[in-house]
Specification:
The complex is a heterodimer of chains A (about 850) and B (about 350). Chain A folds into 6 domains: about 70 residues, 2-Layer Sandwich (Phenylalanyl-tRNA Synthetase, Chain B, domain 1); about 140 residues, Nucleic acid-binding proteins (OB fold (Dihydrolipoamide Acetyltransferase, E2P), Beta Barrel), CATH 2.40.50; about 190 residues, Phenylalanyl-tRNA Synthetase, Chain B, domain 3 (3-Layer(bba) Sandwich), CATH 3.50.40; about 60 residues, Phenylalanyl-tRNA Synthetase, Chain B, domain 1; about 220 residues, 2-Layer Sandwich (BirA Bifunctional Protein, domain 2); about 90 residues, Ferrodoxin-fold anticodon-binding domain (Alpha-Beta Plaits, 2-Layer Sandwich), CATH 3.30.70.380. Helices cover about 25% and strands about 25% of the residues of chain A. In chain A, the strands form 10 sheets. Chain A has a 7-stranded mixed sheet with strand order 25-28-29-33-32-31-30. In chain A, strands 5-4-3-6-9 form a 5-stranded antiparallel sheet, with no helix packed on it. In chain A, strands 12, 13, 19, 20 and 21 form a 5-stranded antiparallel sheet that branches. Chain B is of the alpha+beta class and about 350 residues long. In chain B, a hairpin with a 2-residue loop joins strand 6 and strand 7. In chain B, helix 2 runs antiparallel to helix 4 and helix 5 crosses helix 8. In chain B, about 40% of the residues are buried. The chains are: A alpha+beta (about 850), B alpha+beta (about 350).
Chain lengths: ~850, ~350
């Protein structure tokens, strides 16, 4: 909200500069977002002038050449020549002039200039150019018509930094500095008003905050003097058919209204606050709203058919034309105000054109009502129609505010429009709720804040904020003012009021006792960190992808219609179709990142992601979520080297990384061929963990108590899938880190390895290609007994020497005994058993 | 005889001293001390000499042999050293060539690195790290956090819905209630996680990351919040930092505050050494980093007392604070990252920097 500083100072004027005011407001909860300088930065060069003569420019139809008395050296004897384009300029007018050297509000510096051959020594100004009004093309004429300037303007800025002199408008002397008679320069503070403080949506509400924050006196409320009266009102009728949505509806009638432009002081404040100026009646409604926080609406009473207004729910599908010229279709949760000819406005949101105040209006019905905040919120969102009024009503205004706004408007209608207020006020609605009384315990204040605030200080703060207090046992009894009744309902809310005004700066910085607090990561969290670190240590970069993805991803991954991964979580209101489902796999975001980088940074990509993936749950409102680790490799696995070419990403490159990861956690793991729709059918596998067995390779998996858990997939990405992302050969794996953590033992126990050296032996065996390496190794482990510490395949050969359909596997065996140094003779029987077992699956020992 | 011995010794000493290779030295050793050489021959023949000569000749021959052996050993060591030195010189390489095979250097994403840094700070302060679901019920995301039924944050313009009763969580705060349901007080938890809001521009992405903090015990005050966040601010932004609490509004804390850290770019002055306005804090001297407050009693009212959390959370008996901070914002401030979207583009030129 924009608050012109002079306006604020009219009600509370601490002896502080704008910076200090900003600091006090911000530190007590009314955050100053910005300080704007409205109007001219320097008042230098802006003066009053009198047009002595205005003649047609010889070479331009729309320009006039004016001779202007600017007083002083440029008095009647040596007037200035100014070329003016305004249609309304005329001899005899008193006008506002900017002389060469003056800096306009938009920063332009005026110079002497030739306009179509005629030298112009300045500029005759309009309201818009001075940013003190939003009138049309014409220049600002200071002496006509009525109300152009006047006592009120001068009175209304008692301390706002606008020096002025007395005297009547008509007597304004040429050469008078313009700033003495017009508010052409003003500081405006822009405030962030939190949604719990609709009372601060008015200048007076902010003034009260400033009062509480600084101790400077607060002027009487601008509604304390109400020229209007309560009671029956003749000449208009109002009925409310939906009191639940309209807690209070008030109306007053004004007669003998003269529609005219508002005086400059009022216009200047409205413009500085960000409002357009229209005419005195409309401007008064806006002014009263900005001051009290409460929106008003002025009807031309003669255009209200039957002089009768009805507030009712709209009919389903009912159409109303609003002020902006658009036709809106309503539903039955929306409220309309109608007269004898039908709906005239959407209550609390926007008025209708039909009963608007116009130039010929003489009788005004001033409506001020309280609407149900949530209902207004719903209506304005449903219609996509947000207005100044709806933005205020939706935060919840209080019924008492109706009369506040009526009082301010009544004063101004009488003063500025020459109106007569009819006796009485239409006032429909239940009496406002009674004011709430809350106990505030002194000890509780200290317990919550951690600092002492003396009881007297608590009472002082609350009183400044318009709370009534009286002593009570152990503290205070506090009555909440009407305007705060939504926000302050409990003791804790009062403590907040005390804390924020007393000053959070005063709080000491202490640490909590932290009883029983021992910060630590869980096993699963540590596993996740180490898994990520392992990948980083292997040279991979971590990416962070989007949780959202497009439904088309499922097709691009070639998932068949009934596939498990198609059970995705869908967003009902996505930002776009491309972000409308939650990813069921990390593969999509990895491929997205790979494509981005291949296109920009070359073909070599080695990345991983550690993040959540989502599936629709079979029951309950939540999703099946797990934290996964995904790796994607494409191109070379390392930079090129002068010592030989690096390996290219393929199935085994990915498997080696997977092995490094899983063995880091001492996992007993294996892979088995399994096809996945998005992987190369001949180069894809399921990754399994044996969750109960121990870790040594010598122990056979598949024992009685062992259990295999699927961790994830491993493979080369199907070429058709890779092509969807413009990628060449790409390998990937993804595993469930939660399952990995469950399979990884949190505690590793020491295993004795004895004091004797290990014995290493190699064994080369040819086997049919149909026998997998894993099958061969399983046979070896079965036969070798407990002395086999490790067995690995270290070479693979296929070719003529081993025969068609066969291949040679070279195995490295490591034997170890706790009792003795093993010799080849010790192992000879084991070796024989191994060879025999391999023979059963077609194995033949090579030379 | 003795003269011959001395002659042999003299010849040998001279030749050994000038031997220039290990091979040449070995030849000399064979020539003078080998089985068939003259000196050893003489020693073997000492026994056949007349008794009066035996002593003198034997002694001279032995001395000569020992002297030559010592000389050869010394010379051999010297030659080996020289030869090794030559070989090493010949093995000289260009040490400025790159290491091989190249070991690519990986990096954690700056969001992960930042999140871990923050987690570690809070771990050090005694907070346990806890995580929760991203698809969250309306109950935990809004109702239990004291959002009125008409609170604007519930609007479909402000929250992603996956069903009438579930949303993509808009903050990590729903874990406050989940954590209290699962554990009795005292409770100190930090809750990192991904959250979602339908905004997309240079300063908003529809997903981002927060770390929630929650401390509940019998006596945790707003001053304790300030002290905790002061420790956090100093750990992240430097020992010189200060924090200030500004009153604000959140539905689930009361009193609520926004927390500013004194600007580390200008030392909280608002301007730089050259007098220019500080671009980071825009002359304010303070950087807004997070929202916080004392947990609103209404939130405790949404925590049922069960076996898991007995004696439960009675707002007359326990109190505490909560905060929510944005990981992206902290990383942006620390590293000068200008646009949030860089985080999710995953360009290697970005990833390699941190």
């Amino acid at each position: 909200m924009r608050v012109p500083l002079p306006w604020l100072r009219e009600y509370c004027d601490p002896d502080l500069d704008v910076g200090a005011i900003e600091e006090r407001l911000t530190m007590t909860g009314t955050k100053v977002e910005a300080i704007h300088h409205h109007g001219v930065a320097s008042t230098e060069g802006f003066v009053v002038g009198r047009v002595l003569e205005a003649v047609q420019h010889p070479d331009a139809d729309r320009l006039r050449v004016c001779t202007v008395d600017l007083g002083g050296d440029e008095g009647p004897a040596h007037p200035a020549t100014i070329v003016c384009g305004a249609p309304n300029v005329a001899a005899g007018q008193t006008v506002a002039v900017a002389r060469p050297g003056a800096v306009m509000p938009d920063g332009t510096k005026l110079r002497k200039a030739k306009l179509r051959g005629v030298a112009s020594e300045g500029m005759i100004l309009s309201e818009s150019e001075l940013e003190i009004g939003s009138g049309g093309e014409g220049i600002l004429v200071l002496d006509t018509p009525s109300g152009g300037t006047g006592e009120r303007m001068l009175d209304a800025a008692p301390s706002g930094g606008t020096p002025h002199r007395g005297g009547q408008a008509g007597e304004l002397a040429p050469g008078t500095p313009l700033a003495e008679i017009l508010p052409i320069s003003m500081e405006v503070i822009e405030l962030e008003i939190t949604p719990n403080r609709p009372d601060c949506l008015g200048v007076y509400g902010v003034a009260r905050e400033l009062h509480a924050a600084t101790g400077a006196p607060l002027a009487l409320a601008p509604w304390s003097d109400d020229p209007g009266s309560a009671g029956e009102l003749a000449g208009a009728e109002v009925s409310v058919e939906c009191p639940d949505l309209c807690p209070r509806f008030t109306a007053r009638v004004f007669e003998n209204v003269t529609i005219a432009p508002s005086p400059p002081w009022l216009k200047a404040r409205l413009v500085a606050a960000g409002q357009r100026t229209i005419n005195n009646v409309v401007d008064i409604t806006n002014y009263a709203m900005l001051l009290s926080g409460q929106p008003l609406h002025a009807f031309d009473l003669d255009r209200v058919a039957g002089a009768r207004l009805t507030v009712r729910r709209a009919r389903e599908g009912e159409r109303v034309e609003t002020l902006d010229g658009q036709t809106r279709t309503l539903d039955s949760e929306m409220v309309v105000i109608e007269d004898g000819s039908g709906p005239t406005s959407i209550a609390g949101v926007m008025g209708g054109a039909r009963s608007e105040v116009q130039q010929d209006t003489t009788r005004v019905l001033m409506e001020v009502a309280t609407w149900n905040g949530p209902n207004i919120h719903r209506t304005s969102w449903a219609l996509g129609l947000r207005s100044e009024a709806s933005g205020r009503f939706e935060k919840g205004l209080q019924p008492e505010q109706c009369i506040h706004a009526q009082a301010i408007a009544t004063q101004l209608m009488i003063e500025l429009c020459g109106a007569r207020v009819a006796a009485g006020t239409i006032d429909v609605g239940a009496p406002p709720p009674v004011l709430q009384e809350i106990g505030l315990r002194e000890a509780r204040v200290r317990a919550i804040l951690g600092v002492e605030v003396p009881l007297e200080r608590q009472a002082e703060i609350l009183a400044a904020l318009d709370f009534a207090t009286s002593p009570a046992e152990g503290g205070l009894s506090v009555t909440v003012p009407a305007l705060r009744r939504e926000d302050v309902t409990r003791e804790i809310d009062l403590i907040e009021e005390v804390a924020r005004i007393d000053g959070l700066e005063r709080l000491p910085a202490t640490l909590p006792a932290r009883r029983g607090a021992a910060g630590r990561l869980t096993h699963a969290q540590r596993v996740r960190r180490r898994a990520e670190d392992t990948m980083v240590g292997r040279g991979l970069h971590e990416i962070v992808g989007w949780s959202f993805t497009e439904p088309g991803l499922l097709d691009r991954l070639r998932l068949p219609s009934e596939h498990e991964m198609r059970k995705v979580v869908s967003i009902e209101n996505p930002l776009s179709d491309g972000q409308s489902i939650m990813r069921p796999t990390l593969l999509g975001s990895l491929m997205d990142a790979a494509r981005h980088n291949v296109a920009r940074n070359g073909p070599d990509v080695a990345i991983f992601e550690s993040g959540t993936v989502y599936r629709a749950a079979d029951e309950g409102p939540l999703a099946d979520e797990h934290h996964a680790l995904g790796v994607l490799l494409s191109g070379a696995m390392a930079p090129r080297s002068w010592r030989g070419a690096p390996a290219q990403a393929d199935f085994f490159a990915a498997k080696a990384l997977l092995g490094a990861l899983l063995e880091h956690f001492h996992l007993d793991w294996s892979v088995q061929p399994q096809s996945w729709p998005f992987l190369h059918p001949g180069r894809s596998a399921v990754v399994l963990a044996n969750t109960t067995g121990a870790t040594g390779a010598a122990r056979a998996p598949g024992g009685e108590d062992s259990q295999e858990v699927v961790l994830g997939f491993l493979g080369e990405v199907h070429p058709l899938v890779a092509a969807e992302w413009d990628l060449e050969r790409t390998a990937a794996f993804a595993i469930d880190l939660g399952k990995l953590a469950a399979a990884a033992r949190p505690l590793v126990s020491f295993e004795a390895f004895g004091s004797f050296p290990s014995l290493r032996q190699d064994l080369a065996v040819t086997l049919p290609v149909s026998v997998s390496a894993e099958e061969a190794l399983a046979r070896v482990r079965e036969q070798a007994g407990s002395e086999l510490a490790d067995v690995e395949v270290f070479d693979v050969y296929t070719g003529e020497q081993v025969g068609k359909g066969r291949r040679s596997l070279a195995l490295a065996l490591t034997f170890r005994s706790l009792q003795a140094t093993l010799t080849d003779e010790d192992i000879a029987p084991v070796r024989e058993r191994i060879v025999a077992a391999l023979g059963e699956i077609g194995g033949e020992l090579r030379g | 005889m003795i003269d011959r011995i001395e002659q042999l010794r003299g010849e040998a000493e001279s030749e050994i001293s000038s031997a220039s290779t290990s091979e040449a030295l070995e030849e000399l050793r064979v020539r003078y001390l080998g089985r068939k050489a003259e000196l050893p021959q003489m020693l073997r023949e000492v026994a056949s000499l007349p008794p009066e000569q035996r002593g003198a000749v034997g002694k001279a021959a032995n001395q000569a042999r020992q002297a030559l052996e010592a000389l050869i050993a010394g010379r051999s060591q010297g030659l080996a050293g020289e030869e090794l030195e030559q070989r090493l010189q010949a093995d000289r390489i260009d040490v400025t060539l790159p290491g091989a095979p190249p070991q690519p250097v990986g990096r954690l994403h700056v969001l992960t690195a930042t999140r871990r840094e923050l987690e570690d700070i809070f771990l050090g302060l005694g907070f346990t790290v806890m995580e929760g679901p991203e698809v969250e019920t309306v109950h935990y995301n809004f109702d239990a956090l004291n959002h009125s039924l008409t609170h604007p944050a519930r609007a479909r313009t402000d929250t992603f819905y996956v069903s009438a009763e579930a949303v993509l969580r808009t903050h990590t705060s729903p874990m406050q209630v989940r954590a209290m349901e699962a554990h009795p007080p005292p409770l100190y938890v930090a809750i990192p996680g991904r959250v979602y809001r339908p905004d997309s521009d240079a300063t908003h992405t529809p997903q981002f990351h927060q770390i929630e903090g929650l401390a509940v015990d019998e006596d945790i005050t707003l001053a304790d919040l300030k002290g905790t966040l002061l420790e956090f601010a100093r750990a992240v932004f430097g020992e010189e930092r200060d924090v200030r609490l500004r009153p604000h509004f959140f539905p689930f804390t009361e009193p609520s505050v926004e927390v500013d850290v004194s600007c580390f770019n200008c030392g909280g002055q608002g301007f730089l050494k050259d007098g220019a306005r500080c671009y980071l804090c825009k002359g304010e001297g303070w950087l807004e980093v997070l929202g916080a407050g004392e947990v609103d009693p209404n939130v405790y009212a949404h925590v049922p007392t069960t076996e898991a959390n007995a004696p439960g959370y009675d707002p007359e008996k326990i109190q505490g604070f909560a905060w929510g901070l944005g990981v992206e914002r902290i990383a942006m401030l620390k590293h000068g990252i200008p646009d949030l979207r860089l985080y999710y583009e995953n360009d290697l030129r970005f990833l390699e920097q941190f």
